Amino acid sequence: MRGTLSRMLWLEGFEVILAATGSRALELLGTAFFDLVLLDVHMPDVDGFTVLSKIRERPESFTLPVIMLTGADDRDSVLRSKQLGISDYLVKPYRVTDLLSRIDRCLDNAPKLLSCA
Predict the structure, then answer these.
(1) Domain ranges, ordered by start, for the chain
(2) Keywords for this entry (predicted)?
(3) Are 40 and 116 within 8 A, CB to CB?
């Protein structure tokens, strides 16, 4: 899924860096600047809630746009994400146009460097 999403975003002109696990996403976020992060609630080793929480703890990434792109459509997951400071929440399966619209809204004409975890 990450590979397909990455290729689709690349074709739209985005530079994409992939992280296969939550811990890898946190590692990348500590060493590079990103304009936006796409997270899933369900990731190996460190879940999306924890990654989002860690992002919001860092002063340099407190306002970093984060979109939760996940199959978790239950009310608790949505509420928890909002409490942790998610920028947007999109449930799989999703339409590509919906994702691109949400990305554009979050970036608001900023450069296009994304992290997909």
Answers:
(1) 2-116
(2) Phosphoprotein
(3) no
Residue 110, CA distances (Å) to 59, 64, 113, 117 in order:
19, 12, 9, 20
- For residue 69, the tally of other CB atoms under 10 A from its CB is 24
Neighbours of 26 (CB within 10 A): 18
Question: Domain 2-116 carries which CATH code?
Answer: 3.40.50.2300
Q: Which of 35, 32, 54 is nearest to 43 (CA)?
A: 54
Question: How big is the chain by its Cα radius of gyration, in Å?
Answer: 13
How confident is the model over 60-70, as pLDDT tens digits? Answer: 898 999 999 98
- The partner residues of 17 in beta bridges, in order of sequence, read 115
Residue in this structure with the two tokens 């979050």, named with its chain if needed:
106
Q: Is the pTM of this model over 0.90?
A: no
